C-alpha cells in the first residue's frame, strides 16, 4: 500500500458522502497525516442496515490522528452545503481540498427509470458536484494546495455505457464535465481532477448492485484512498486528469495489488465506463437490475425488501416456485421483484428476472402496510388498492407466506 508522507498535515478536506465507503476511506487516509476532515453526509442517526453515521466516522477519523467536523449535508440542498462550508472555515480557517464523492445510482433503462430517480441522480451527481465546487472554490483559490477531486469516470462515448442506464451515465459524465471545465477555468489556482477505479470496489452499494458473493470480485476502498492521497499531494500543475487508480499506483511503484483485494487471487470485475470487455461487464452486472442510491435508497420499501431478501430460504423457493413483480406508485415509485423460483431466490429493485408469474400494482405505502401485516392482500385487492395480473394461485401462496413471516417483518 502507499505510505503516508505527512503532506496533508493541517490541511482541511471537505468530503461529501464521507460517513462510509469510499469517502470515509479517503478521509481516514488523510487523517493519518493529521488532516482536518469535514464529513459532509446525510446519515446523522444510526441505520439498522447501513453502517456508520457522520459521528461514528468522526470518531474513527480522530482515532486515526485527524480532526473531524461532522456536518449533515444533502448535496441537493444549497443551504446545507453553505452552512457546512461556513462551519468548516470558522473551525479550521479555510478549505484546502474538496472531494466530490456523494453520488446516486440506478442501473435501469430509460423506460424503467421513474422521473423521481432521474431527478435524484442529476441533482446529487451533476448538480451536487457543481454546486459544492462553486461554494468551496473561493476558499480553495486561497489555499496553497487547492484541489477538487471528483469520483467520476473518464468520458467514454462507447454506446454500451449509455444503452442500459442512460440517466445514470449522463449524471456521472456531468461530474466529469465539471473536471474538464473547472480545470481549465481555474488553471494555476485550483487543481481539478477525477478518480475512477479499475475494478469494482466493495461498498454497501455493491451488495445491491451485484448480489450475493460479489465482494469476492471486488477490491477494498483502500485502493481508491491511496490513489486519492497520491493525487491530492501533487502540485496544482497536475490538473485536468482522469485518473484510474491502478494505473496511477503502478506509476508510483506499487506492485502488490493483492493487498487491495477482498479475496486475493480471485478474478476481479472491471468497473463501468472502461473498455475492458464492456459487453461482458454489462451482462455480469445488469441482469440483477438492482437499484442503489448511495445510501439514498433507504425508505420503507427498500427496507422491507432487505428484510424479505434476508428471509428467503431454499425451502421457501422450493415450495413457492413463483416470480413476483411489484409496480409501485407514490412516495417510492418504482418496480421491485421477489424471485421465489430460480436458484436460491432473490429480491430487489428493477424488473423481475424473466417473465414474472404475478404482477401486483399498488401504492408504495400500501405495499409496506401489506408486508408489515397492517393490510391483508385479499382486503387490498377487494378494496381496489391492489391490482393483480397473472397467476392468482401464486398470489395466494405469497399471502400465506407473508402471514407466516409478518411478525419477523413487522418487528425489524
Automatic annotation (TrEMBL):
Task: State the compartments where it is located.
Answer: Mitochondrion; Peroxisome
Alphabetically list the UniProt keywords.
Mitochondrion, NADP, Oxidoreductase, Peroxisome
Pfam families, sorted = adh_short, SCP2
What are the GO MF terms of this UniProt record? oxidoreductase activity
Q: Does the keyword Mitochondrion apply?
A: yes
* CDD domains associated with the record: HSDL2_SDR_c
Q: Is this entry keyworded NADP? A: yes
Give the family from UniProt.
Belongs to the short-chain dehydrogenases/reductases (SDR) family.
- Tell me the protein's name: Hydroxysteroid dehydrogenase-like protein 2
Amino acid at each position: 500500500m502507499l505510505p503516508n508522507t505527512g503532506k496533508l498535515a493541517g490541511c482541511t478536506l471537505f468530503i461529501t458522502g464521507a460517513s462510509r465507503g469510499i469517502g470515509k476511506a479517503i478521509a481516514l487516509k488523510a487523517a493519518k497525516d493529521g488532516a482536518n476532515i469535514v464529513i459532509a453526509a446525510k446519515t446523522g442517526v444510526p441505520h439498522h442496515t447501513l453502517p456508520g453515521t457522520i459521528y461514528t466516522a468522526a470518531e474513527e477519523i480522530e482515532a486515526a490522528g485527524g480532526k473531524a467536523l461532522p456536518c449533515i449535508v444533502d448535496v441537493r440542498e444549497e443551504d446545507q452545503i453553505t452552512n457546512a462550508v461556513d462551519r468548516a472555515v470558522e473551525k479550521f480557517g479555510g478549505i484546502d481540498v474538496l472531494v466530490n464523492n456523494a453520488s446516486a445510482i440506478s442501473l435501469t433503462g430509460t423506460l424503467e427509470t421513474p422521473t423521481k430517480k432521474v431527478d435524484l441522480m442529476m441533482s446529487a451527481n451533476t448538480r451536487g458536484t457543481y454546486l459544492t465546487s462553486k461554494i468551496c472554490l473561493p476558499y480553495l483559490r486561497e489555499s496553497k494546495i487547492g484541489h477538487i477531486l471528483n469520483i467520476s469516470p473518464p468520458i467514454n462515448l462507447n454506446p454500451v455505457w449509455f444503452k442500459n442506464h442512460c440517466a445514470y451515465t449522463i449524471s456521472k459524465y456531468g461530474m466529469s464535465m465539471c473536471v474538464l471545465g473547472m480545470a481549465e477555468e481555474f488553471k494555476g489556482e485550483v487543481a481539478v481532477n477525477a478518480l475512477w477505479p479499475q475494478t469494482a470496489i466493495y461498498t454497501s452499494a455493491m451488495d445491491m448492485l451485484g448480489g450475493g458473493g460479489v465482494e469476492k470480485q471486488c477490491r477494498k476502498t483502500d485502493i481508491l484512498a491511496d490513489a486519492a492521497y497520491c493525487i491530492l499531494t501533487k502540485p496544482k500543475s497536475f490538473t485536468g486528469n482522469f485518473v484510474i487508480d491502478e494505473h496511477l499506483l503502478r506509476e508510483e511503484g506499487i506492485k502488490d495489488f493483492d493487498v487491495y483485494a477482498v479475496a486475493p487471487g480471485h478474478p476481479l470485475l472491471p468497473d463501468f465506463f472502461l473498455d475492458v470487455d464492456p459487453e461482458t461487464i454489462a451482462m455480469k452486472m445488469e441482469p440483477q437490475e438492482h437499484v442503489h442510491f448511495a445510501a439514498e435508497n433507504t425508505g420503507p420499501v427498500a427496507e422491507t425488501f432487505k428484510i424479505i431478501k434476508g428471509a428467503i430460504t431454499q425451502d421457501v423457493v422450493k415450495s413457492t416456485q413463483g416470480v413476483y413483480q411489484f409496480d409501485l406508485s407514490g412516495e417510492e415509485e418504482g418496480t421491485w421483484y421477489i424471485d421465489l423460483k430460480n436458484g436460491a431466490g432473490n429480491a430487489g429493485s428493477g424488473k423481475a428476472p424473466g417473465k414474472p408469474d404475478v404482477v401486483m400494482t399498488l401504492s408504495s405505502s400500501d405495499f409496506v402496510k401489506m408486508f408489515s401485516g397492517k393490510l391483508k392482500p385479499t382486503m387490498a385487492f377487494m378494496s381496489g388498492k391492489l391490482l393483480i395480473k397473472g397467476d392468482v394461485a401464486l398470489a395466494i401462496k405469497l399471502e400465506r407466506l407473508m402471514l407466516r413471516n409478518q411478525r419477523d417483518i413487522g418487528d425489524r
